[in-house]
Amino acid sequence: MATPSAIIWSNNQLQLLDQRILPVQCEYLHYDDPYIVADAIRAMVVRGAPAIGITAAYGMVLAAQQLIKSSPASTAAWHLALRPAREALANSRPTAVNLFWALERCDRVIEERGNDGKVLQALTDLAIHIHAEDIQLNQRIGDFGASLIPADSIVYTHCNAGALATGGYGTALGVIRSAHRDGKIRGVFAGETRPWLQGARLTSWELMQDGIPVTLAIEGAAAHLMREHKPSWIIVGADRIAANGDAANKIGTYNLAIIAKHHGAKVMFAAPTSTFDALIDGPQIPIEQRPAEEITHSFGKRVAPENMVISNPAFDVTPAQLIDAIVTEHGIIHQPDRIKVLAHLAEGKRNNR
Ligand code: MRU
Q1: Could you give phi then psi for residue 247, rounded to 5 degrees?
Q2: pLDDT digits (tens, 9 = 90+) for 94-113
Q3: What is the 251 CA–ligand 1 centroid distance (Å)?
Q4: Is position 239 annotated as part of the catalytic site?
Q5: Would you say the CB of residue 49 lies under 6 angstroms from ligand 1?
Q6: Quick one: angle between helices 253-263 and 222-229, nearest 10?
Q7: ω into residue 283 within 30 of 0, thus cis?
Q8: Residue 89: CA atoms inside 13 Å, Cβ hemisphere, count?
Q9: Which residues pair with 302 in a beta bridge?
């Protein structure tokens, strides 16, 4: 059984699979308002960097739909009228750069079509294109990544960088899917991923649906499991990869990279080039702080004392020196550094022309 789509665009309306209640319930929520879409991103109805970008693009379509009756007359008027919805979407989550990448693509469409009355159709086409393209890119990432996996491998993943976090197929789980198709995967460890349990609720579910052997483990078991089972690769997605090759991903990824070095496992980040931010280095990546209740409460019940001081960073940054490979739709960056990252992005742009 294939994983259901995280995002559906149908009859000019957006539907998001409510990932907060998976895998127990499988329900779609309907959206026709960009501000409610921004709330849904913040509330984790939809999550995962590429899926957030796709959703933001559809959010801009909904914003343009609301305006179409009073259709602004110029490019400047379109920009002005769409600005509040754009701001709301941009402020939903700060770390996944795909969100800003998608909004900037929408800006360019408004720039090009603002004067000819075709903005709504052009934004709709763009959002559908970003969505469909993401699936194809993930299949390429998956195949490039799988070429690095030795036969009979145990691999380890964290959070959910699967079909549910993207347009489909997944980035890290795309690599695992392709490697499994090639007969190379003996087993996958999925870290449960506190506090939202994306590993337990989403990754385990996705891999089981595809018949890929997966074992769920708590994060604290990572070092023990790496010593006992000797995974060949730790394979994760990314929310933002900086010019110097440092990569932000779900909190706990940095721990895994350090533990992996000690145990001789290699570390792979799998992400489309829309996840790169060539303007900054790792230390400048903004790290989202999530609400305290995500830690003080578990399934609606208080589990920490009242008035606790809480630190709840949603992401961490793994330094490039701990990364063996970054895999994109254009290929593999081995032992990433600034020169290799910038060359890879430039080469990708040339190939896209
Ligand atoms: O907080 P989340 O669930 O949005 O975090 C998701 C991750 O960290 C993913 O690994 C990352 O966005 C890549 S998804 C292909």
Answers
A1: -135, 130
A2: 999 999 999 999 999 999 99
A3: 10
A4: yes
A5: yes
A6: 30
A7: no
A8: 30
A9: 297
